[in-house]
Specification:
Chain lengths: ~280, ~270
């Protein structure tokens, strides 16, 4: 097939154009956030929050509220529960995270099977970007823009918070606020990402681009650009690939992301495997 | 540097009175009273768990004392902190050296507290960063990623951040851990310059040789202040025995001195 028609033919469908645009936006925003997640060491937290938002989404749908609201409450709530259990018991953090998010996720599964609604479980689990409705697009765009604005506004404070929270606090920055800001943004991004790749794979959007970029540069600014670029590229390539192969869109997007990570893992000029071998 | 120093030298920099701190009912510090003047290097000596880091946390406003008060430069702690009076220089092991950030940015972080909410640096901020980096002789390396610095340069980068902050009180947490002799001399020289400028340095350490070397005053601490005053007066066998729970001071000195690497001289060096 000719490359040009490979690119252009899918664009004749409105749903493809919509999917490409929405997922590029979501991927870019998640890519930016993934830099903070990677550097803060919050990958596991991202996994937890993205699963824990599920009951919130179901309840919000059932009550006809914006799903972002439900996701936000349950995302931040799960982290509060994790923090509380960790503080008051002797259980280690990874165990607490594991048990809390699976508990929330199970609640979501149960609710979805009992609450009468139009939600399709597989859409929540694996995303449905090709069939995304106008209402969902509006919400997703709104959330993405909100996350983007918050991350840009508090960019320097958040970098400092990731790098040296003690110093941040000693010069009078409100680290408690920054902590919950980053968590809130994470919950919101998880809901946005949920639309494109679903709950199960959204953590890839929140971790992989940052990790890929982290191996390629020692500058935060470049790291964010590389992460955003690789995330947007992955989402576009993934959607094309899934179109032509008639394969799972979420699977394709995340596979491309993982592929880019592997390339960077092997060939990154300084921190890649080959460069380290040569040294 | 612009914002500093507030009081004239010889004034009281740190004033702690009857400070008590407890965590979940366990007493970490009890009735600590302490006054350190401007332009003093003060050693803070005690075993692990004696409350050194709790005292640091109290001085940074991280813990709420159950009793007592702290003032710095004659101001209540909160106000002093808002004026960026206190800088904490972290232990080197607690820093993520792979973080994608370069030296000048780390030093600029010292200025954030005084900037607008977007933390866009102004001319003063850039000047302060430059002056601080020149002081510690890192200006030519300002664009290096922090992990590319040598051990001594890393320490100096964080000292530069404290300078850029314009702090009059520096809290240094085990500053000599894992440092070679040459770097140590360089750091002590810097400390003495800071002292000459009227800054007050509080240095937590369990290596007693440093205390006698260049500290003007010493605080011996074990949940409370056991002894405090001029180094020569405080540093008695009896006081040290009390601080370290009765074991001879000699034994406490040696293990921390032993692992320090001496550049250019390996134990087996001459035989090769």
């Amino acid at each position: 097939m000719e490359p040009l028609s490979w690119l252009l033919e899918p664009l004749r469908h409105d749903f493809m154009v919509r999917a490409l645009l929405v997922s590029a936006l979501v991927a870019g925003v998640c890519g930016l956030l993934s830099c903070f997640m990677t550097l803060k060491g919050w990958a596991l937290m991202g996994d937890a929050v993205s699963h824990a938002v599920m009951p919130g989404v179901v309840i919000a749908y059932a009550l006809n509220l914006p799903f972002a609201l439900g996701a936000f409450v349950f995302g931040v709530g799960s982290v509060a529960v994790i923090g509380y259990i960790k503080q008051t018991t002797r259980i280690k953090e990874d165990a607490v995270i594991g048990l809390v998010f699976t508990g929330f996720f199970a609640l979501g599964l149960t609710l979805i099977s009992k609450v009468r609604s139009t939600i399709d479980l597989t859409h929540i689990l694996f995303g449905n970007v090709l069939g995304i409705s106008g209402d969902d697009i509006r919400q997703t765009v709104l959330i993405s823009v909100l996350v983007l604005v918050l991350l840009l506004l508090f960019r320097r404070d958040l970098i400092l918070f990731c790098f040296d929270p003690t110093h941040a606090r000693s010069i009078g920055l409100n680290t408690g606020f920054l902590h919950y800001l980053l968590l809130s943004v994470l919950s919101l991004a998880a809901v946005a990402g949920l639309q494109t790749v679903g709950i199960i794979l959204v953590v890839a959007m929140l971790v992989t681009p940052g990790a890929t970029a982290y191996l390629l540069t020692d500058r935060f600014d470049r790291m964010t650009w590389i992460a955003i670029g690789s995330a947007v590229l992955s989402s576009a390539l993934g959607i094309y690939w899934s179109y032509w192969m008639d394969a799972s869109t979420a699977g394709c997007i995340v596979l491309v992301q993982t592929g880019l990570f592997l390339l960077s893992f092997l060939f990154a000029p300084r921190h890649g495997l080959l460069a380290q071998r040569r040294r | 540097m612009a914002s500093y120093p507030d009081p004239p030298p010889s004034a009281e920099r740190i004033c702690v009175s009857h400070l008590c701190v407890s965590y979940h009912g366990v007493v970490a510090l009890h009735d600590v009273t302490l006054t350190v003047k401007a332009g003093i290097i003060c050693g803070l000596v005690g075993t692990n768990g004696a409350g050194k880091s709790t005292l640091f946390k109290a001085l940074m406003g991280f813990v709420r004392p159950s009793q007592g008060e702290i003032s710095i430069n004659g101001l209540p702690l909160r106000q002093a902190l808002r004026r960026q009076a206190v800088a904490y220089v972290p232990q080197m092991e607690s820093v993520d050296w792979n973080f994608p950030i370069h030296v000048a940015n780390v030093v600029m972080m010292g200025r954030y507290g005084g900037m607008n909410l977007l933390r866009i640096p102004g001319r003063d901020d850039h000047r302060a960063v430059r002056e601080s980096l020149e002081r510690v002789e890192l200006w030519p390396l300002r664009h290096r990623q922090i992990g590319e610095l040598s051990g001594g340069q890393r320490k100096r980068a964080f000292l530069a951040r404290a300078l850029a902050q314009g702090a009059s009180v520096l809290l240094l947490d085990e500053p000599f851990a894992g440092v070679d002799i040459r770097t140590e001399r360089l750091m002590i020289e810097l400390f003495q310059q800071f002292r000459a400028e009227g800054r007050t340095l509080l240095i937590s350490t369990h290596d007693l040789s440093h205390v006698t070397g260049f500290c003007d005053e010493v605080v011996l601490i074990n949940k409370t202040v056991l002894a405090y005053g001029d180094t020569s007066e405080v540093f008695t066998e009896e006081n040290l025995a009390r601080t370290f729970g009765g074991s001879p001071a000699q034994r406490l000195t040696s293990p921390s001195l032993a692992p320090r690497p001496e550049p250019g001289r390996e134990p087996w060096g001459s035989e090769r």
